[in-house]
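Fold it.
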Amino acid sequence: MRPNRPLSLFLLAGSTLVAPGLAVSAAAGVVRPASIHAVAPQAADLDPIVGSWRPRAYRLAAGAELPVDGRIVFLARSDDGSRGEWSVNFFVTGEDGAAVRGSAEGGEWSRDGRSLLLTHQFHLSAGAAAGPLPEAPLAMAFRSAAEAAANHREPCEVTVEGGLLTLFFPSGNSMTFERVEGLR
């Protein structure tokens, strides 16, 4: 007769093997205690902005629309899925589709209804003049999370309708994104 053994659960997350109470990095062979609090919220609990989005339109407050490409990603990092981390890489493109100017930004986000608060912890941008936008010299910033939360917050309005997400920035500019399917 075989003894009854408790069931074991193993999940492969990226290159990390996770078992109850342990996380094992397959690449490094490192074993460490797993944290139940590190588990992301269930998909049904996630805010609808969570996922990967591709820009469709960048509208300036003055009315001009610039061609753009790239990605914005919102990750959930709370039990209720209403806050987390965000990262964007986007490029204003010329008539030939080549990048003219670009920006990479990121930090934490939180949302309450249509109000979205973005903190800017990381920022890198540069580029040539594009439409009504003047040339932008190289700008880089890396801030602590505390500094970003205290001094580099951007309150936006957000809508999600169907597969479209639109961010309305304090400048009057807006950017509309379409969901990248399969990356939620």
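The longest strand covers residues 99-112.
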